[in-house]
Design brief:
9 helices, alpha+beta, five-stranded mixed beta sheet, 2 domains, Aminopeptidase, about 350 residues
Length: about 350
């Protein structure tokens, strides 16, 4: 087995990533404090957020060990941590990873856990190199068994009186999958996304996307952003296009402009407290709402990163509003890290 550790995995709707201490609030609120969630689990319901924080403090140092696999399940749509999936036991002799999972009751019944379990199973086979993946559930909790079935695991049998959880001794229903059991993944042609710098005749199309950005901001911070899309905003894209310190990047798919970003070269002069800061700032970023989850945002980020390196920039920065949690999840998955916060107090 490879000591691959807990790497970030992205699926259609989820980001699976290592836990952070700031996840304690989500962990406690979304699942660890709910006795319905913990009913068939082996650990007790958390009585306070301090318990959740203590658990995370015990987990986080273990990420340095390449055989510790424990993912936070992040719902892309709002950036909330809604559950946990992990290898609860590893049998070295047979290279077997036994998986456990739990999730907020508010997200049950949407096919989310099978999506996470499939992704983790693929990772354990393809990246960690295990030979066998297993999972089990209390015989009185058949819904968990349906998760395993939907994820492709095969029924192996019932071990009577072999398990113990918060309800006491129970019969364990076991599912498993060998590396060789998996069906070959279908080869699908991936849409070709072209990323390049914008031409002047495309600026009206860019404005259509800029309006989506403005509408998002108005919905998230109506007390700050003005509704509508004024002529001043519409015309400003032409000022940006003519500015030698700014670049407009666009993404094109099947002949349609489906994404854009505005890049701004910023130089902050040296002060008594700080050195000169010379970096490339992503001032605006958007993928058309009708084209999302097709790899367009990742293609844009890849183009911007390559351009920044070619131009000799040492840093790539962006800022975003706290309400846009889905964007935060994407940027973190793309490699951005929070290094400062801008805070407010409403009076």
């Amino acid at each position: 087995m490879n000591k691959a550790g807990t790497q970030t995995i992205e699926t259609h709707r989820l980001i699976l990533r290592p836990f952070r201490i700031e996840d304690a609030e989500d962990m406690f609120r979304n699942w660890a404090s709910d006795p319905e969630v913990t009913r068939f689990l082996t650990w007790p319901t958390h009585t306070g957020v301090d318990v959740s924080r203590a658990v995370l403090n015990s987990w986080i140092p273990q990420y340095e060990d390449g055989v510790f696999f424990n993912w936070a399940i992040v719902w892309k749509e709002n950036g909330s941590v809604i559950g946990n999936i992990s290898v609860v036991r590893f049998i070295e002799e047979t290279e077997t990873a036994d998986i456990g999972y739990c999730m907020s009751r508010a997200y049950w019944g949407r096919g989310i856990m099978p999506e996470a379990l499939r992704a983790v199973t693929d990772f354990l086979f393809d990246t960690a190199g295990v030979n066998r993946v297993t999972a089990c559930h209390d015989a009185n909790n058949p819904k968990s068994g349906r998760v395993m079935q939907k994820a492709g695991l095969k029924f192996e049998g019932i071990m009577r009186g072999a398990g113990k959880n918060n309800l006491g001794i129970c019969d364990e229903v076991r599912y498993g999958l060998l590396r060789g059991d998996r069906e070959p993944k279908p080869v699908r042609g991936k849409a070709k996304v072209t990323v390049r710098f914008a031409r002047e005749e495309e600026l009206d199309s860019v404005n259509r996307l800029r309006r989506q950005v403005n509408d998002l901001h108005v919905a998230g911070k109506p007390e700050t952003f003005k509704p509508g899309f004024s002529d001043e905003l519409r015309n400003y894209i032409y000022t940006i296009h003519k500015d030698p310190n700014q670049k407009i990047v666009v993404a094109e798919l099947d002949g349609s402009l489906c994404g854009f970003a505005v890049l701004n070269h910023i130089i902050r002069p040296e002060t008594p407290f700080m050195y000169v800061r010379d970096y490339l700032d992503v001032d605006e970023f958007c993928v058309d709402e009708h084209y999302r989850r097709q790899g367009i945002a990742s293609a844009l980020i890849g183009f911007i990163r390559d351009y920044a390196k070619e131009e000799g920039f040492g840093r790539l920065e962006l800022n975003m509003w706290e309400f846009n949690r889905g964007a935060l999840v994407f940027y973190e998955a793309a490699g951005f890290r929070t290094y400062r916060r801008y805070m407010e107090m409403t009076l």
